[in-house]
């Protein structure tokens, strides 16, 4: 564990992270669209979520079709994440997820290849972090609305044929 001292020499502990879930998205083939020249520079992209799956301690289900990712590719090559989709737990509970974050390629040519040709990437190719927020009515999952979370890109899960393999994200609660 990392510790830091404040100005008075007191030890400060950084927050801990608790694993919550992994979400694997399938993207709708052929739905990638580019809107060039957005105000402030760069391009806006849009791709539809076809479905997917999620699983974590005490939760499991599917990603409902109809979500969307609308990242903005800044002129400096950084992708500003803006994504929304719905999770449906096995018990029927629907959870709205909104992700905001940053995806930056360690090699900018990889970002261009991924965006323009939808090439597969590895998590090691990118710094990719999001801060999700959740909306849910069920008391069982209300804790999702009362905490801060962070997520990171993972390599795709190897179970079943992809419809249009999208990102796999792992989420953690900041304790």
TrEMBL record:
Q: Which domain of life is it from?
A: Bacteria
Q: Which residues form a coiled coil?
A: none
A Pfam family of the record is DUF3237
InterPro entries the UniProt entry points to: UPF0311 (IPR020915)
Q: Which family does it belong to?
A: Belongs to the UPF0311 family.
What HAMAP family does UniProt report for this protein, alphabetically? UPF0311 (MF_00775)
What protein name applies here? UPF0311 protein BJ982_001369
Native source organism of the sequence? Sphaerisporangium siamense
């Amino acid at each position: 564990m990392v510790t830091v001292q404040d100005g008075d020499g007191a030890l400060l502990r950084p927050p801990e992270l608790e694993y919550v879930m992994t979400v694997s998205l399938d993207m709708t083939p052929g739905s990638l669209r580019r809107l060039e020249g957005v105000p402030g520079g760069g391009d806006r992209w849009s791709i539809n979520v076809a479905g997917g799956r999620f699983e974590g301690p005490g939760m499991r289900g599917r990603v409902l079709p109809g979500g969307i990712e609308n990242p903005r590719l800044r002129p400096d090559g950084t992708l500003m994440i803006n994504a929304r989709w719905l999770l449906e737990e096995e018990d029927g509970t629907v959870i709205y997820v909104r992700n905001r974050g940053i995806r930056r390629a360690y090699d900018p040519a990889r970002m261009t290849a991924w965006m323009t040709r939808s090439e597969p990437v590895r998590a090691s190719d990118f710094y990719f972090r999001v801060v999700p927020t959740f909306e849910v009515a069920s008391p069982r999952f209300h804790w999702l609305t009362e905490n801060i979370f962070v997520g990171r890109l993972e390599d795709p899960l190897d179970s079943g044929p992809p419809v249009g393999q999208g990102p796999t994200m792992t989420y953690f609660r900041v304790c």
